[in-house]
Design a protein that fits this description.
The protein is α+β, with helices and mostly antiparallel strands and 230 residues long. It has helices at residues 16-24, 68-72, 99-103, 132-136, 142-146, 157-175, 190-229, and strands spanning 2-6, 46-49, 56-59, 78-81, 86-89, 110-112, 124-126, 152-156. The strands form four sheets. A two-stranded antiparallel sheet has the order 1-8. Strands 2-3 form a two-stranded antiparallel sheet. The protein has a two-stranded antiparallel sheet with strand order 4-5.
Length: 230
Protein backbone atom coordinates (compact mmCIF):
# COMPACT_ATOMS: atom_id res chain seq x y z
CA UNK A 1 0.00 0.00 0.00
CA UNK A 2 1.27 3.45 -0.90
CA UNK A 3 1.02 6.25 1.64
CA UNK A 4 2.66 9.45 2.87
CA UNK A 5 5.21 8.59 5.56
CA UNK A 6 6.28 11.20 8.12
CA UNK A 7 9.94 11.56 9.17
CA UNK A 8 9.49 14.08 12.00
CA UNK A 9 13.21 14.35 12.72
CA UNK A 10 13.72 15.89 9.25
CA UNK A 11 11.00 18.57 9.41
CA UNK A 12 12.32 22.16 9.52
CA UNK A 13 8.92 23.86 9.86
CA UNK A 14 9.04 25.68 6.52
CA UNK A 15 5.24 25.24 6.02
CA UNK A 16 5.62 24.50 2.30
CA UNK A 17 3.47 21.40 2.75
CA UNK A 18 0.66 23.49 4.27
CA UNK A 19 0.78 25.97 1.38
CA UNK A 20 0.86 23.24 -1.27
CA UNK A 21 -2.03 21.41 0.39
CA UNK A 22 -4.23 24.52 0.57
CA UNK A 23 -3.52 25.42 -3.07
CA UNK A 24 -4.18 21.85 -4.21
CA UNK A 25 -7.59 21.96 -2.53
CA UNK A 26 -8.52 25.40 -3.86
CA UNK A 27 -10.90 25.98 -6.74
CA UNK A 28 -8.27 27.64 -8.94
CA UNK A 29 -5.25 25.55 -7.83
CA UNK A 30 -3.23 28.69 -8.50
CA UNK A 31 -0.90 29.83 -5.72
CA UNK A 32 -1.24 33.47 -6.80
CA UNK A 33 -5.04 33.64 -6.56
CA UNK A 34 -6.13 30.74 -4.34
CA UNK A 35 -6.19 32.79 -1.14
CA UNK A 36 -8.49 35.39 -2.71
CA UNK A 37 -11.22 32.78 -3.00
CA UNK A 38 -14.32 32.64 -0.80
CA UNK A 39 -14.25 30.55 1.26
CA UNK A 40 -10.48 30.54 1.70
CA UNK A 41 -8.96 27.11 0.90
CA UNK A 42 -7.77 25.21 3.98
CA UNK A 43 -4.74 23.04 4.53
CA UNK A 44 -5.17 19.42 5.56
CA UNK A 45 -1.66 18.99 6.98
CA UNK A 46 -0.70 20.89 10.12
CA UNK A 47 2.92 21.66 11.03
CA UNK A 48 3.25 21.75 14.79
CA UNK A 49 6.14 22.84 17.00
CA UNK A 50 8.61 20.14 18.00
CA UNK A 51 10.02 19.48 21.47
CA UNK A 52 13.14 21.63 20.91
CA UNK A 53 14.14 24.60 18.77
CA UNK A 54 14.50 23.94 15.01
CA UNK A 55 12.31 20.82 15.14
CA UNK A 56 8.72 20.57 13.93
CA UNK A 57 6.16 17.87 13.16
CA UNK A 58 3.90 17.71 10.07
CA UNK A 59 0.69 16.20 11.48
CA UNK A 60 -1.77 14.63 9.06
CA UNK A 61 -4.52 12.01 8.89
CA UNK A 62 -3.19 8.45 9.16
CA UNK A 63 -6.22 6.96 7.32
CA UNK A 64 -6.71 4.43 10.12
CA UNK A 65 -8.13 0.98 9.45
CA UNK A 66 -10.51 0.67 11.17
CA UNK A 67 -11.05 4.43 11.32
CA UNK A 68 -12.76 5.72 14.50
CA UNK A 69 -14.06 8.80 12.64
CA UNK A 70 -15.78 6.63 10.04
CA UNK A 71 -17.29 4.40 12.72
CA UNK A 72 -18.95 7.25 14.63
CA UNK A 73 -20.08 9.49 11.75
CA UNK A 74 -23.90 9.59 12.03
CA UNK A 75 -24.54 11.02 8.56
CA UNK A 76 -22.34 8.70 6.49
CA UNK A 77 -20.21 11.64 5.36
CA UNK A 78 -16.99 9.71 6.04
CA UNK A 79 -16.20 6.75 3.80
CA UNK A 80 -13.19 4.65 2.80
CA UNK A 81 -11.70 4.13 -0.64
CA UNK A 82 -10.62 0.52 -0.20
CA UNK A 83 -8.53 0.53 -3.36
CA UNK A 84 -6.32 3.41 -2.21
CA UNK A 85 -6.74 2.90 1.53
CA UNK A 86 -7.94 6.49 2.05
CA UNK A 87 -10.55 7.77 4.50
CA UNK A 88 -12.56 10.51 2.77
CA UNK A 89 -15.11 13.15 3.80
CA UNK A 90 -18.09 14.12 1.63
CA UNK A 91 -18.57 17.79 2.67
CA UNK A 92 -22.18 18.06 1.55
CA UNK A 93 -23.21 15.20 3.82
CA UNK A 94 -21.33 16.50 6.86
CA UNK A 95 -23.58 17.94 9.59
CA UNK A 96 -20.74 19.44 11.63
CA UNK A 97 -21.45 17.39 14.75
CA UNK A 98 -17.70 17.02 15.46
CA UNK A 99 -18.03 13.40 16.59
CA UNK A 100 -15.15 12.55 14.24
CA UNK A 101 -12.90 15.13 15.88
CA UNK A 102 -13.77 13.82 19.33
CA UNK A 103 -12.59 10.29 18.54
CA UNK A 104 -9.64 11.13 16.25
CA UNK A 105 -6.49 9.93 18.07
CA UNK A 106 -4.24 12.29 16.10
CA UNK A 107 -6.20 15.57 16.37
CA UNK A 108 -6.13 16.22 12.62
CA UNK A 109 -9.76 17.14 11.90
CA UNK A 110 -10.70 20.82 11.71
CA UNK A 111 -13.95 22.58 10.74
CA UNK A 112 -14.22 25.28 8.07
CA UNK A 113 -16.51 26.29 5.19
CA UNK A 114 -15.45 24.71 1.90
CA UNK A 115 -16.09 25.62 -1.73
CA UNK A 116 -17.64 22.17 -2.32
CA UNK A 117 -19.50 22.17 1.00
CA UNK A 118 -23.17 22.91 1.76
CA UNK A 119 -22.59 26.69 1.96
CA UNK A 120 -19.95 29.39 2.25
CA UNK A 121 -20.94 30.02 5.89
CA UNK A 122 -21.36 26.38 6.94
CA UNK A 123 -18.38 24.71 8.62
CA UNK A 124 -17.77 21.05 7.83
CA UNK A 125 -15.10 18.49 8.71
CA UNK A 126 -11.79 19.10 6.91
CA UNK A 127 -9.06 16.45 6.86
CA UNK A 128 -6.39 15.00 4.60
CA UNK A 129 -7.84 13.11 1.64
CA UNK A 130 -4.46 11.80 0.50
CA UNK A 131 -4.75 14.01 -2.61
CA UNK A 132 -7.00 11.29 -3.96
CA UNK A 133 -7.45 12.93 -7.38
CA UNK A 134 -3.68 13.30 -7.87
CA UNK A 135 -3.03 9.72 -6.77
CA UNK A 136 -5.65 8.38 -9.18
CA UNK A 137 -3.77 10.17 -11.97
CA UNK A 138 -0.48 8.60 -10.91
CA UNK A 139 0.96 11.67 -9.13
CA UNK A 140 2.16 11.87 -5.54
CA UNK A 141 0.35 13.96 -2.91
CA UNK A 142 1.11 17.68 -2.99
CA UNK A 143 2.71 17.80 0.47
CA UNK A 144 5.23 15.08 -0.34
CA UNK A 145 5.98 16.60 -3.75
CA UNK A 146 7.05 19.97 -2.30
CA UNK A 147 8.93 18.70 0.78
CA UNK A 148 12.63 19.32 0.10
CA UNK A 149 14.00 17.53 3.18
CA UNK A 150 12.01 14.28 2.95
CA UNK A 151 10.06 14.93 6.13
CA UNK A 152 7.08 13.79 4.04
CA UNK A 153 7.75 11.00 1.56
CA UNK A 154 5.36 8.99 -0.58
CA UNK A 155 5.77 5.35 -1.50
CA UNK A 156 5.18 1.76 -0.48
CA UNK A 157 4.63 1.62 3.27
CA UNK A 158 6.92 -1.34 3.99
CA UNK A 159 9.78 0.19 2.01
CA UNK A 160 9.40 3.53 3.80
CA UNK A 161 9.34 1.82 7.20
CA UNK A 162 12.50 -0.14 6.31
CA UNK A 163 14.27 3.06 5.25
CA UNK A 164 13.23 4.73 8.51
CA UNK A 165 14.56 1.78 10.51
CA UNK A 166 17.92 2.11 8.74
CA UNK A 167 18.16 5.80 9.70
CA UNK A 168 17.22 5.05 13.32
CA UNK A 169 19.80 2.27 13.49
CA UNK A 170 22.42 4.70 12.21
CA UNK A 171 21.48 7.21 14.92
CA UNK A 172 21.82 4.54 17.63
CA UNK A 173 25.24 3.51 16.31
CA UNK A 174 26.37 7.13 16.24
CA UNK A 175 25.23 7.65 19.84
CA UNK A 176 27.18 4.54 20.86
CA UNK A 177 30.29 5.84 19.11
CA UNK A 178 30.32 2.98 16.62
CA UNK A 179 29.66 5.15 13.59
CA UNK A 180 26.45 6.07 11.81
CA UNK A 181 25.12 4.66 8.55
CA UNK A 182 25.80 7.48 6.06
CA UNK A 183 22.84 8.94 4.19
CA UNK A 184 23.05 8.80 0.38
CA UNK A 185 24.23 12.20 -0.80
CA UNK A 186 24.95 13.38 2.73
CA UNK A 187 22.58 14.83 5.32
CA UNK A 188 20.70 17.85 3.86
CA UNK A 189 19.73 18.93 7.37
CA UNK A 190 23.25 19.12 8.81
CA UNK A 191 23.39 22.92 8.49
CA UNK A 192 19.90 23.37 9.94
CA UNK A 193 20.68 21.17 12.93
CA UNK A 194 23.97 23.01 13.49
CA UNK A 195 22.09 26.32 13.48
CA UNK A 196 19.61 24.96 16.02
CA UNK A 197 22.40 23.75 18.30
CA UNK A 198 24.19 27.11 18.02
CA UNK A 199 20.96 28.99 18.80
CA UNK A 200 20.37 26.87 21.88
CA UNK A 201 23.96 27.37 23.04
CA UNK A 202 23.66 31.15 22.56
CA UNK A 203 20.40 31.21 24.52
CA UNK A 204 22.03 29.25 27.34
CA UNK A 205 24.99 31.66 27.43
CA UNK A 206 22.65 34.66 27.48
CA UNK A 207 20.69 33.17 30.37
CA UNK A 208 23.92 32.49 32.25
CA UNK A 209 25.07 36.08 31.77
CA UNK A 210 21.70 37.35 32.96
CA UNK A 211 21.98 35.25 36.11
CA UNK A 212 25.55 36.49 36.65
CA UNK A 213 24.47 40.12 36.29
CA UNK A 214 21.69 39.52 38.78
CA UNK A 215 24.13 38.15 41.34
CA UNK A 216 26.46 41.13 40.77
CA UNK A 217 23.63 43.59 41.40
CA UNK A 218 22.68 41.76 44.60
CA UNK A 219 26.32 41.87 45.78
CA UNK A 220 26.61 45.61 45.04
CA UNK A 221 23.36 46.34 46.85
CA UNK A 222 24.52 44.37 49.89
CA UNK A 223 27.83 46.27 49.89
CA UNK A 224 26.05 49.62 49.72
CA UNK A 225 23.82 48.64 52.64
CA UNK A 226 26.83 47.64 54.75
CA UNK A 227 28.64 50.90 53.89
CA UNK A 228 25.59 52.94 54.90
CA UNK A 229 25.30 51.13 58.22
CA UNK A 230 28.99 51.73 59.06
Amino acid sequence: MQTVFVNPERCIGCLQCELACAVEHSSSQDAATAFLETPVPRTRVHVEAGPVMALAFPNRCRHCDPAPCLQVCPSGAITRDDGLGLVLVEPRRCIGCAMCAVVCPFDVITFHPLADGPGTEVSVAVKCDGCVDRVREGDEPACAEVCKVDALVYGELNELVAAGSLREAGAVLAAAGVGATPLPGGDPLAGWRAWGAAAQAAAARSAERARGNGHARVDRTAGDDQGGQS
